[in-house]
Amino acid sequence: MKTKLIQSLLSPLLVAGLLLAPLPAPGGDSVSAAAGQAKAAAAAASQQPQVIVDGAKLTLAAPAYVEKGVTFVPARDIFKALGASFTWESKTQTIIGRKGNITISVTVGKKDGIVSGKPVKLEAAPVVKKGITFVPVRFVAGALQASLGLDSNTGAITITTRDAAAEEEYEDWLNEQQNKPVLTSGEIVDTYDESVVLIMTNRAQGSGVVIGDNLILTNHHVIADAASATVQTLYGDEAPVSGVVAYDAESDLAIIKTEEPLDLPAVEVTYALDSRKGDKVVAIGSPLGLQNTISDGLISNITFEGGVRYVQTSAPIDHGSSGGALFNEHGELIGITTLGYSGSNADLNFAVSVFHAAVLVDEMTEEMVENAKFLPSKLPSTLAGAPLADIQKVMADQFASLSTTEGVAAFTKWEAKRDAAGWLVLTADIDPLFYMYYGPATAQELRMWAINMGYDLHDMLPDDKIQVVVSYERDFGFEPRGFEPGQVTSLGGGKWRVRYPVIDMQLKDQLHIEVRD
């Protein structure tokens, strides 16, 4: 858990004054004497107050005392009690105390001091009495970021260090966690189902979580290359998206804005870091376009990659779940579902920790909301009439790789040609080792990549007949068998080359695609 910073509070030190003695009764000498004794005792307590640090009485080399409303304590004792070092420079009668990045320097007889390089004014100057140096307790406590108070019953000065305050807050937080109600999956759905929406862009489909009147949290990859988008609610209502408010490509998160308010309950986004392995979770998203599908499971692991915290879960997700919500059993949003491994029976699915979403929300400004717009495309708006060399460069720059659940598939040797029939033919080779090991497992992802590429090519070259062929090619020191004619050729010298198409996509006003699996 991330310990919260505790703001230091400097409370004025109230020193108990003299109590007003009751009026003596006629002939009541004994009553007057008792009142006088009580008055003397109260005055003595107020003039030599006890000092309590983090609940324990502080043993002092000499009693604390009050002078003109200022309480003085032995310097060495209070510095050490508050976890600071103490150095006494006898020549200059200067006290130097250090704790972490805090340095305090004060001099006997002077109200001017220095705290961490900045000049400060003390309420009273340090003094030396009977060989012991005394300092104002309120100044030292405040400089060392401790809070100070007064026990109204005993008149004792109470000091709480920052570490003790943090520990106390942590204990309170633990008690709060233990007392949180546990919700059933049905109760979580009843509360948040309508707060998860389906997002359709001109490129893809995903999910999103309502976090404001017209603000939706989703994955960056859902909206990254979109030129337009629409949000569809659980009730079938549609709302156009006006643009992206904020995003973080590294953590794969984005906040988008709808043109009109959605009138849906917003989900709270917090810096929750208390997710634990074994905790129950519920995922809500739209896998394969099946809107607001519910799945449940456990937190399988907490992992980190590239500075991003991921919640690994056994709750099933699929394509289209990206940007959906992952709730814990208390109904708290703990992650945004991002990806899963399709070729495994182990339910290996991941959500970006809500911590990163909270950072994004905190960095968002009203100006950013007002100026929401779609992100600039990495592709040119058109390639109509462009030389083949320019088209080839775009393919090599923008379609060089695909991140899959099994790793990165690289596409090299892009070439652009026009055949005798007027077709634009684009060819490339897939990394042969990747395809040999992971080709069948990633066939669906290669298909989706090719489909998206087809839409992009059609946008840039709407009047062209286009064929994209991605091939597997590898050389061997023997003649492989079992291939179709023409897929194995002799290179001479006992070398043989295997080459065959892995992806064959053709499009004009319609799209046809074959992916070898």
TrEMBL record:
Taxonomic lineage of the native organism: Bacteria, Bacillati, Bacillota, Bacilli, Bacillales
A matching Pfam family: Cu_amine_oxidN1
PANTHER family with a match to the protein in the record: SERINE PROTEASE FAMILY S1C HTRA-RELATED, SERINE PROTEASE HTRA2, MITOCHONDRIAL
InterPro entries reported in the protein's UniProt record: Cu_amine_oxidase-like_N (IPR012854), Mao_N_sf (IPR036582), Peptidase_S1_PA (IPR009003), Peptidase_S1C (IPR001940)
Keyword Transmembrane helix: no
Keywords recorded for this protein, A-Z: Hydrolase, Protease, Serine protease, Signal
One annotated GO molecular function: serine-type endopeptidase activity
Native species: Paenibacillus arenilitoris
Copper amine oxidase-like N-terminal domain: residues covered: 53-159
Signal peptide: 1-27
Identification of the protein by name: Trypsin-like peptidase domain-containing protein
Keyword Protease set for record: yes
UniProt record, GO biological process: proteolysis
